[in-house]
Amino acid sequence: MMRLTSILCLILLGISNIRCTTETASANQNTVKKPGIITGADQTEKYLSYLKGKRIGLVANQSSIIGKKSSVDSLVSLGINIVKVFGPEHGFRGNASNGAVVGDERDAKTGISIISLYGKNEKPTKEQLVDIDLMVFDIQDVGCRYYTNINTLEYVMEACAENNKELLILDRPNPNAYVVDGPVMTDDKFKSAIGIHYTPMTHGMTIGEFAQYLNGEGYLKEKCKIKVIKVANYNHDMSYVLPINPSPNLNTQQAVMLFPSLCMFEGTAINEGRGTYMPFTILGAPALEGKYSFSYKPVGIPGMSERPNHKDVVCYGLDLRKYDIGSLRKSRQINLSWLIELYNAYPDKAKFFGQERANTGVSPFDLRIGTDQLRKQIIAGVSEAEIRKSWEPGLKKFKAIRAKYLLYPD
Q: Binning pLDDT at 50, 70 and 90, where does residue 230 land?
């Protein structure tokens, strides 16, 4: 059949301008190459004309690329007038440690002013927006409530709404969009810099979808005018390998996929790989010596983690660098068993979860999880099945809300 199709194409091409294509085939299998995922930023034909002639403010970091080139450099080379760049946590170049205050600066390459949204102000001010006609948001997210890019998104939307500025979102895939899981935050006392939204720990939305959610669910005093350049050829269940590390401590695809499960350990006595070049793929603590053979020593690493938990002390625990992340996709759940296992293995259980903060009365662990229920359940020895069952009402309610704002199928 393949040979006959090819011959027919040659005949037709000899007598007309008809364009023929053939599908590759083998004796055992026919395969058709599917179009690949195309980010919103890479579809310049859909938005360049909209940017032309406007003074642009761009919310971006190192993950903001068009092809293999920085979105800032690419847009400037295409004649777009970028007057300011706004950088989130870790800074515009993505080289600041987690939680580090980032100052304003000027980009050495383009001379463009860079405004930090993780320094003096988290939200763009009226003065910073006065000379901007259109704001553009182009940042890679990883789909967790405690990953602060969605906080930045809300602050930017709020500022745009207050100052009558439109926000254009260049959407990108969420590598963890397949999973909507964990307890839903429902109490204001658990709001913090690492969580301000009433979502589960993993929300399963892209930045474009999350922006619609923020507008629709009343997070803003007044709605922000948004325009989303959608990702092409994409659905939530598709695998997506990030072309650029989204932050210093998510430096491998394994870390990106394990992040929803391992970031729970922040606020506990367990080091989650910070202070190594294997963050969010290993877990350990000095007190687990003799219970696990795998060991490593966290150290201060500039630009990644200067003061990791258990700095300069050998930790013992789990090596998950070769863990089959495909199993997470199959279960469509975060992994809760590691948290239960290491709590049970920890000799001094009273010290496993972080102490309550004096100014809030809430522990760092509870702030990350968005509730104190999980901590109490683990201490009480509640089974994983029962813990998950307690999440179901909140997840069911959230999924119904989430469905109203989706731009891509699950």
A: very high
